[in-house]
Write a structure and sequence with these properties.
This protein is about 50% helix and about 10% strand. The chain is α/β, with parallel strands linked by helices. It has one domain. A six-stranded mixed β-sheet has the order 4-3-5-2-1-6, with helices on both faces. Helix 2 runs parallel beside helix 8 and helix 12 packs across helix 13. The protein is globular, with a radius of gyration of 19 Å. The chain starts with about 30 loop residues before the first strand and ends with a strand. About 40% of the residues are buried.
């Protein structure tokens, strides 16, 4: 089995929502305009490799080919991967086994085996470090994730490449999550691995159908069955989605004001009345669905 990379971010495509606005419930590619500026595009991605995502859809590729600058949610490199891995580990005498218990620790070792992490390394991971890297061992991963494809095109064309968040901000999102929430969410995920694997496949199907509302509703239905973790899920949703949406919508505008920009970020950041598209419209922009 080939080694897979430790993920440096990626919960944005698999978290629950609250209220929804009908206007932003479908569509992955949006044309964003404002008086006095040239049009730009905002594209919602999903942070998984899959053969069905092996190529950018033609409308997306055309928008990217017409861009003069590209902005992504995050642009990883060698340093940021090492920094994220370091932050995801206990640096004192704490261990994962001591934090979540022997039974769940053994489950974590099994789940992280596909990415080649030895037992002693897994034992030093914080719960959120495991949570971000859960895998379905039966599912193959083929192709290049969409975010990486966008980066490849941008670099091949020597386009200006910018990111919305830095590595320390991404780390802060997860590292400051209360430990009781980390432990509860990890234990729950390890206990319900089969359901989560099925949910991941249905989530990908909804993404391929460009149905943002279904992405939210699938997860909400799953969480509704387990009220014991609802409070922890609400904390995660606020930190990973809603709080970051506000920051993203603000920072995107430094490129949108210049026009001819292509902005790529997790698809669920587009969804609903609290998503980045709705927030951009509050600042005077107009978002029109393209694809």
């Amino acid at each position: 089995m080939r080694r897979r990379e430790f993920i440096v971010a990626g919960l944005a495509a698999s978290l629950p929502a609250w209220a929804a606005a009908k206007r932003f419930d479908r569509g992955l590619l949006w044309r964003v305009t404002k008086a006095g500026t040239r049009p730009s595009h905002v594209y919602g991605t999903i942070h998984v490799p899959d053969a069905r995502l092996a190529q950018l859809p033609p409308p997306v590729r055309r928008a990217l080919d017409g861009a003069r600058r590209v902005m992504l949610e995050f642009v990883p490199d060698g340093y940021t991967r090492e920094r994220f891995m370091e932050a995801a580990m206990f640096l004192d005498r704490q261990t994962l086994e001591g934090t979540i218990g022997k039974q769940d620790f053994e489950r974590a070792v099994e789940v992280l085996a596909p990415i080649g992490l030895p037992r002693e390394v897994v034992n030093k991971l914080k719960p959120w470090g495991v949570l971000l890297n859960l895998r379905d061992p039966q599912r193959g991963e083929e192709g290049t994730p969409l975010d990486a494809q966008v980066i490849e095109v941008a670099r091949a064309r020597r386009l200006q490449l910018d990111q919305i968040e830095g590595v320390e901000e991404q780390i802060f999102t997860f590292d400051e999550l209360p430990m009781d929430a980390q432990v509860a969410l990890l234990r729950h995920s390890l206990e319900h691995r089969a359901e989560l694997a099925e949910l991941a496949e249905r989530t990908l199907d909804a993404y391929l159908a460009r149905d943002l509302s279904a992405l939210w509703q699938l997860r909400e239905a799953f969480i509704a069955r387990y009220p014991e973790v609802a409070a922890y899920q609400a904390v995660m949703t606020k930190r990973v989605i809603h709080d970051r949406n506000v920051v993203m919508a603000f920072r995107m505008q430094r490129q949108l004001r210049r026009g001819d920009a292509f902005v790529a970020l997790g698809a669920l950041h587009l969804y609903g009345e609290r998503g980045v598209l709705a927030l951009l419209e509050q600042d005077g922009y107009r978002a029109t669905r393209v694809f």
